[in-house]
Amino acid sequence: MVDHITLAKKVIEKYPITKNDFLEIRFFIGEFTNINIRNGAAEQVSNEFKIGAALRSLIGGAWGFSTSKNFSTRDLSNALETSISVAKASISGLSEKSAVPTNYVYNGVAPLKITIDPRDIPLEDKIRVAVDLEKHVRHEGEKIKVSTASLTDIVQREIIVNSLGTEVDVSNCYVRISGSGIARDGSIVQNVSDSVGTSRGWETIKEINPTEMGTKIGRRALNLLSAQTPPGGNMKVLMDPTLVGVFIHEAFGHAIEADSIINNMSVLAGKVGHKVGVPDITVYEDPTIPGLRGSYEYDSEGTKTKRRTIVDKGVLKGYLHSLETAAKMGVEPNGGGRAENFNYKPIPRMGVTYIDKGDMSIEELCQEINEGVYLSKSYGGYVNPSIGQFFFTAQEGRIITKGEFGPLIQNVSMSGLTLEVLSNVLGVGKDLEMAFPGTCGKGQSAPVTGGGPTLAVMNVVVGGSK
Amino acid sequence: MSASLKIAKKNVEYGISLGADQVEIQILNQKQTRLEIRKSSLKGGDILETGGAGVRVYVGKSLGLTSTTRINELNESVKKAYSLAKGAPEDPYFSSLPIGGKYRRVRELYDNELANAPFEILVKKMMEGIEEASPNKDYTVSSGLNRSVTEHIIVNSQGVEARTKGTIFSGSIGVKFEKGLDTSIGSEPINGRSLKELETLDAGKKAAEKAKARIGAKKISSGIMDIVLDHKSTLGSLASLLNSGANGLTAALGTAFLTGKIGEKVAEKGITIKDDPFVPGGVASQSFDDEGTPTKKLVLIEKGLFKNYLTDSYSANRLNVENNGHGAKNSLISKPTPTITNVIISPGKWNTEEIIKDTKKGILIEDSGLTLQGASTNISRMVDNGYYIENGEIKHPVKNTMVGITVFDALSNINAISKEIVNLWGSQTPNIRITKVKISSGQ
C-alpha cells in the first residue's frame, strides 16, 4: 500500500525553497454513492470515484496550484513543478504578497468515527430505503406531481503534507437522505423538501423512519396548495430553527469568512470588538461537535479545528481563517480552510454555525411578534458580503395575528442587511436545534450545518406577491 | 482518431460484452488555466487538468451510472455501472439512448490563439481591465479568469460517435466603491471563445462606473410598481423562466408552468423568443448535446404563443415529441436534462430612454434577473442592483428591496420592449418593462 505521507515528503524535498516559501501536497480519495428515486422510478443509481492530488506552492508571495490524477513520484513532481512555475510567473504581477504562518505545524490522524460503514451496505438495502421514502411522499395524494427521494453516502480521505512539517491524515463520512414533493393544482405549484444529513455512518439511516418522513413531506406539499398567498412588505418575522440555521449562515456567516475580510469584500471588515447585535445574541462556529453534517476535525490544510466564538453577547469576536488569512491578520489559524476536492484550493468556510439558545418559549416569541409572519423550513439562500445584503427562502409559514398563529402561507423569500439584522432581534427561543444540514456553495461546495433556536426579528423584507 | 475516442469505443464494446443492453461513454479532457486577482493584485494562478469519464449502462430499463477521474481505469467504471444497473429499479419510461445523426458544424468554437496563450498573456489582459476599474483608492477590485481547452467525446452503443474541441474563457471584474461608511458594488462578466475577444478595458470601466453610481442606496416604500429590466436582466429572466417553463422533463412530470400550453398565449404578443445553438462563437453554441444528439434551432415563443419544449432523448420520449438535442449534464455522473442554449429575443418599438421616461413609479433592475425557486410559479426575488424611478426619472439606487409576482403575470404584463438589441455572448436581448409588480422594501 502506498505510504502517501512518505511519498509527498519525498516529492516536496526535491524542491528546495526559501524560508517564507511553502509547498503542500494534498491527496484526495473519495467514493460517492447516490440513489435518486423519482415518481416510483430510478432516476439515478450511481457510484463515483474522485482520486487526485492537489499541489500548491507559495513562492515569493505568489500562489501556484496544479493537480495530478496519478500518484507516482514522476506525476506528482511534474504537477508540483507546474505549480511552482505558475507561482513564479505570477510574482511580477504582485502588489501585495501572500504568506502562511510558519509557526503552526499539525500532525495527526483522524480516522472515520462511524459505527456502520455505508460502503458495507448492499445496494439493494439502500435502494429499498429511498424507494420507501419516495413512495410515501407520492401516496399522499394525486396532486403530488413529483416525488423524489435521494440517498447519498460519501467516504473521503485527505492526506495533507506541507513543507513546514504538517502531516495530517483525515477521513470523513457524509450520509444524507432527503425527500421532496411538488404539488400542483392548476396554476398553483408548491415545493416541499426535508433532509437528514450527518457526518456519521449508515446508523444515520437506521435512526430515521422513511415512511414517516415521506408521509410528512407529502402532506405538507398538499396542504400548501390551499394555503394563502404570502404577504409582501417590511414586517416582523418568527423563524423556526431550520430557517434560523440558513439565516445565520447567509445573513452573517459568509461575512465573517476572512478571505472576504482581507480582500476588503465584507461589511464586517474591521468590526471585531464592535457591537453587531443585541446582547441576547451569541453565535458560535463549531465543527468539533461530533456527527453533524458540517463537523470535521482537521481542515483541508491540515489545521486542527476548534470552536470559534463569532459573536459574544452582541459583540463581534473574530473570523474564520485559512492559513493565508491567519498570516495576513496575525492571528492563530482556526481550521476554516476547506476544499471540495483536489481540484480546488482551500478557502475559509463555515462548518457548524449556530445562534446560542435564549430563554423564551414559542408562545412568548409569538406574542412578541404580535402582528407578522411565522416562517419555517428553509429552501436555500445567498448573500453578497460586500454590501451585506442577503436573501433566503422559506417553504411555508403562518400569519401571526394578535400574538397567535393564524392561516398557513405558501413558499416565500426574504431579504435583509447583515449590519442591521442581529440588532433587530426581538427575542431568542430556548429550543436550540442543529436543524439545517445543507451544502454551501462558494465556487465549490462544502457540507455544513446551521442551527439555532426559534428567533423573532423585526424589519425583515418579505417578498410576497400580495 | 483521438486516443480518448478509441478508449470510449473500446469501453462501449466492453459494456455490451458484459451483458449490458445499451452503453454510453462520455469523456471530457479539459485543461484549465485560472488566475485570481484580489485588491487589484495578482494572487497567483492554477494550471490543471480536470475532467474524466462518465458511464451510463442500461440493463433492460434499469440504469447504472458511474464516473471516474482516471480514464485509464474506465473499464472498472463500466463494470461497476453494469453491476449497479442490474440492481437498480426499472424506469418504465426509458426507451433508448439516442441514435445520433448528422452534425452541423458550428464556427468559431475553438481558437488556437486562446488555447495556446501563455499564462503571462492572460495576466496582462486582465490587469489592463483591473487598472481601468480602480481609478483611485476608493475602489477595491477583485477579479478572476478561467480559460478552458476541452475535448468532448460521446460514444454510445446505438451509433452515436461525437467529438468536438472547444475553447472558452469566463470571468468577471468586480468593484467595490466606498464613500464614507457607505459601500456599493459593480461587476462585469468577461466571456468568450477567442483571444481577440479577451479585451477587459471596457469591462473594467463599466464595473467601476456601476459601483460608483450605486452608492447611496436607500430603502423605499412598498407598493405596486413597474420594473424595467436592463439587457442582462432581461436575458437572465427570460432565459431562466423558459428553462423552467419549457423544460421537457418537468413538462412530462407536470410541474413546468408551461405544461400543456403548446399553442396557447403565454406572454404579451410582442414577445418572440428563439433558441439558437448555431451562433458562431456563442458561449452556449454546440453542434450536439451531451447525449450526442444533433442540436436543433427552436422557436420557443412566437408573438406571445408558446411553441416548443426543450427536449432530450428521455423527455422527448415521454412527451412523444421530437428530440431537439438540448440535453445537458451538470457533471459526468449526471443524467442529462433539457437546457436552453443561446437565447434570441426579438426587439420591440421603444427607445430605452423612452421606457424610463414613460415609467411613473418603478425600479430599474440591472445585472440580475427574475427566477423561480424550484417549481413554484411565484417569483420572489431580491433586487441585487436596482434604481428607483419616479415620474420618468432615475432617482437613486435601492437596497433591501424585493420583487413579487407570479410567472404568468410577469410574462403577460410586459408592456414595453426596446428596439435596441445587445449581443451577449451569443444571445441577443432588448430591455423590457413589466407592469403591476409587488415591490417590498425596508422603509
Q: Could you describe the 3D structure shown?
A:
Chain A is of the alpha+beta class and 466 residues long. Helix content of chain A is 21%, strand content 41%. Chain A is built from ten helices and 22 strands. In chain A, the strands form four sheets. In chain A, strands 1, 2, 3, 4, 5, 6 and 7 form a seven-stranded mixed sheet that branches. In chain A, strands 11-10-9-14-21-20 form a six-stranded mixed sheet, with helices on one face. In chain A, helix 1 crosses helix 2. Chain A is globular, with a radius of gyration of 23 Å. Chain B is α+β, with helices and mostly antiparallel strands. Chain B has ten helices and 22 strands. In chain B, strands 7, 14, 15, 16, 17, 18, 19 and 22 form an eight-stranded mixed sheet that branches. In chain B, strands 3-2-1-4-5-6 form a six-stranded antiparallel sheet. In chain B, a hairpin with a 2-residue loop joins strand 5 and strand 6 (182-192).
Helix content of chain A: 10-25%
Poorly predicted spans of chain A: none
Strand content of chain A: 35-45%
Number of E strands of chain B: 22
Number of strands of chain A: 22
Percent range for helical residues of chain B? 10-25%
Q: Rg of chain B, please?
A: 24 Å
Biggest sheet details of chain A? 7 strands, mixed
What's the quaternary structure here?
heterodimer
- How many structural domains can be distinguished in the coordinates of chain A? 2
The helix-and-strand class of chain B reads alpha+beta
Whole-number total of structural domains of chain B = 2
Radius of gyration of chain A, in Å, reads 23 Å
Give the class of chain A from helix and strand content and strand pairing: alpha+beta
